[in-house]
Amino acid sequence: MEKRKTVDLIVRADYLLPVGSVATVISDGAVAVENGTIIAVGRFEEVIAGYAPEKIIGGKNRALIPGLINTHTHAAMVYFRGLADDLPLKEWLETYIWPAESRWLSPEFVSDAIELACLEMLKAGITTYNDMYFFGDAAGLATKKMGMRAVLGVGVVDFPTAVAKTTDEYFDRAGEFVGKWKADTLIRPCIAPHALYTCGPETLKRARSFADQSDIPIHIHLSECEWEVQEILSRYGRTPVRHLASLGFLDGRVLAAHCVWLDDEEVGMLAERGVGVSHCIESNLKLASGMAPVTTMLKAGIKVTFGTDGAASNNDLNVLSEMSTAAKVHKALSKDPTALDSRTALLMATRWGAEVLGLGKITGSIEKGKAADLVIINLEKPHLTPIYDIYSHIAYSVRASDIETVIVNGVVVVNEGTLCRGDEGEILAKARAWAERIAGR
Question: Is the peptide bond before 337 cis (omega within 30 degrees of 0)?
Answer without folding.
Answer: no
